[in-house]
Amino acid sequence: MATLTEERRSTSSSAVSYRRFLSRHISWVPVFAAVIILVVMIAGAMWYFPNFQLNRIMSSILLDNAYLLVLAVGMTFVILTGGIDLSVGAVMAFTGILCAKMLGDGVPVAVAIPAMVLIGAAIGLLIGVLVQFFDVQPFIASLIGMFLARGLAFVVSLESIKVDNEGLLWLQSTRFSFAGWYITPTGIIALLTVALAAFVLRYTRFGRTVYAVGGNEQSARLMGLPVVRAKLSVYVISGVCAGLAGIVLTAYSGAGYPLNGVGTELDTIAAVVIGGTLLTGGSGFVIGSMIGVFVYGLIRTIISFSGAEQSWTRITVGALLLLFVVVQRVIVSRSALSR
Which keywords accompany this UniProt record (predicted)? Predict the structure, then answer.
C-alpha cells in the first residue's frame, strides 16, 4: 500500500513538473513541432528514396532558398509586433532588377549592393510611417509598398536584365565544401542574417521591446518602452532584408526580372508561421523561421523527387499552416488561462 502511494506521489510530482516546464516554455512548442516535422520528413525521404543524400539535399535547400530565409528574418520581426509586410516580394524584385541595371551601367558592386539595402530600408520606413503616424492598417500600408515597389521595378525595365558582373555572380558560383556538405556565399549571408537577428531579439533591449509590443502594446507604452521606435524599426529591418534578398536572388538567378517574387510574401509568411511565430505577435523565434524555410524547401524537394506536380507543394504547405494555426490557438488559450 505504501509503495502504491509513493508511486502515485511520484506520478503526480512528474505531472506537475511537466506542466510547469510546459507553461514556462510554451512558446517553444510550435518550434519543437516544426523540428519534429522536419526530422520525420527527412527520415521518410531517406527511407523512400534510396538516392536521397542528406548532406547534398540540405545544402541544396539552403542554396535555393537563401533569399527566402533572409526575407523570413525580416518578416519575423514584423509579425512579432503583430504586423504584416506584404511588400517584401515586390521590394526584392525592385532591388534585384535595379541592381542588375546599375551593374550593367558600370556602377561598382561595392556601391550597388549598399544602395539596394538602403532603398529597401526606405520603403520599409515608408510603410512604418504609414502604420505608426497615419494609423493605416499594416495590411493596407504594406500593400501600398508592394504596389509602389512592383511599379518601380517595371519602370526600371519590362524585361529581364542579365548580370555579367563577376563580383555579384561570385556570391553564387563559389562553393565551400566539407564532408559532403557545401555552402555558397549567399547561404553564408542568409545564416549570418539569422544569427544576427537571433542575437538582437534575445540579448538586446530592442529585441525585448519587440516582444513586449507584440504581447501588449498598451502595457509596453505604460512601461515606458520606445514603442514608436520599435514599430518603425521592424518595418525598416524587413525592408533591409528584402533589399538584401533582392541581391541574393539576383546573384542566384544571374538576372533581374520585374516579376520576380510574385507570391513570395505568402511563402515567407507561411515559413514564419510554420516556424512557430504567432500571427498575433509577442511569441516566436528567428531560429523557428529558419526551420520553417527548411520545411518548405524540403516539401518542394520531396515532391520533385516523387515526380508529382508542384501544386502539391501548395496543398501540403496549406495543410501544415492549418495545423500550426490550430497549435497557435491552443497556445493562446493556455496563455490566457494561466493569467
Answer: Cell membrane, Membrane, Transmembrane, Transmembrane helix
